[in-house]
Amino acid sequence: MADDGAARLPGLPEIETAARRLAGQAVATPLLSSPLLDARIGARILVKAESLQRTGSFKFRGALNTLLSLSPDARKRGVVAFSSGNHAQGVAAAAQLLKIPATIVMPADAPAIKTANTRAYGATIVPYDRHRDSREAIADSIARREGATLVPPFDDVRIIAGQGTVGLELARQATALGIALDVVIAPCSGGGLVGGIALALAALSPATRVYAAEPESLDDLRRSLAAGLRIANEAAARSICDSLLAPMPGVLPFAIARRHLAGSLTVGDDDVRRAMAAAFADLKLVLEPGGAAALAAILSGKLDCAGKTVAVIASGGNVDRELFAAALACAAPAS
Amino acid sequence: MADDGAARLPGLPEIETAARRLAGQAVATPLLSSPLLDARIGARILVKAESLQRTGSFKFRGALNTLLSLSPDARKRGVVAFSSGNHAQGVAAAAQLLKIPATIVMPADAPAIKTANTRAYGATIVPYDRHRDSREAIADSIARREGATLVPPFDDVRIIAGQGTVGLELARQATALGIALDVVIAPCSGGGLVGGIALALAALSPATRVYAAEPESLDDLRRSLAAGLRIANEAAARSICDSLLAPMPGVLPFAIARRHLAGSLTVGDDDVRRAMAAAFADLKLVLEPGGAAALAAILSGKLDCAGKTVAVIASGGNVDRELFAAALACAAPAS
Lengths: 335, 335
Fold this sequence. Notes:
By secondary structure, chain A is an alpha/beta fold. In chain A, 45% of the residues lie in helices and 15% in strands.
């Protein structure tokens, strides 16, 4: 039997270790709700606002957990990462905190706010062409030249354990509120976030069904789960969700998904715009398109959750103001 | 000596009682920060996000505290309130929770989202003309006719104690983080919020200097403090801050302000727009104009806070999407 990564998956102990490492540095993000939203959907919706996380997305968790695991010598040689923006900011901010030099390989067409913030956190940015260059090759070459450590975006035990702290926190918050979670939905690109959450909940709340939410034009996880092996997206596929463009599920996240996910829900660009508008109106949250994908799945009825208690992860809020205003304008929520 | 209300002011015990009453119903709102914002301002800024409070503003706290203090008989006869929108939603949502009939007298030109949400919480809305009718007279007549209890927006011990739970929570959060607060700034209309916070901090963190933030066109508190007596705004005064239009400081809030406030900082409409844009970009928060007034005071340099630790209250997020998009468009933050 081929190595599907299962032997290397982190468990609850690794996630708990990550949570202890992150305490006091990462925001314990609030679990928000809106009676008006609940009434419209006919379910109890809890929104875990990772958009309020340091750097504006959950990515800070996995990045800081990984950097804290490096030796003093490795820290001195620095880190390198490739990212469309949120992992970039997460790594840059974690590196700045630990005084580690960071180089980030970013697409030239990344949202301006993500590039500007990554630079503001003190990282060196190396741009590349999303449709021509190999970001992995560029990052590898920098890592080799400088002896720097590559910080992968999702296919890594330390990253998955760090993102899994979202699930750990969520389970503890629900318990404190006396709430049993029927369903949890998290946006999915490479699968580090939903994978880490699924591992945490499998241990802490095994009756909860965990779903991924991904763009319908980049439904690699859905198709991979159906086929039983990792399938890539079309290279030409486009989506408004700039943070959900990974070419295919990671090896470790896919191993987790096969064991622990109830499925993957797909959302269109207009579903996402409407979810951004609903988050604005009902929750007062700024969500980026990818960060609104899980909420979009519920709002657009991709899962029958009548009478259920559903937690959705609002994974990020790094969005340029023009795109945000346009989403509000073309997608006023039904009221 | 004239009665200035001081004998009737609530103290820390009343605020602690309110906090116990609100536990599990009001959101313990997060204290957020942004290293990028701190670097731009040259101070440590903590943002208490009451925009994430139930109903999208702090007003739910005082409303629920007041309604919970009513007798069963008074609850049956219902409540009435007048408000430009946030107190309206706070009272309506608290009344819905306790199954109390609520009538809200609202200006015909209140933001659409505030009117729609107040109605969605089950309240009966009575519109009035802000420049022609007396909302107090309309509300009084309804209260007399129906035997309903008037829930005042700010000049009330129970309301001030409820809003004061923001200060209690803030002080506890700062202590948990090991942070000493040099300055706290809260938006001010009638003064219930900043008054309640000032009372809580006078007891729990007496070295903290507490300031109000108000529109420069409606600087009644600043002028009242200078004169030593309550002075009204010009009836014709206008501001983008639709939630900060009270005609003059309340009796009790002014008594608190004279004893406990370090002063009132005034902000212009453009300061407020820039603060809304900064909250969007750096904190991922949707703030309404009035909710951004305290952040605006800091961002526009109305107080020298170099090297200090400053908490600002982001008091609400109920803003129509057109106004929000316009604020972002005309006020991109410096970066």
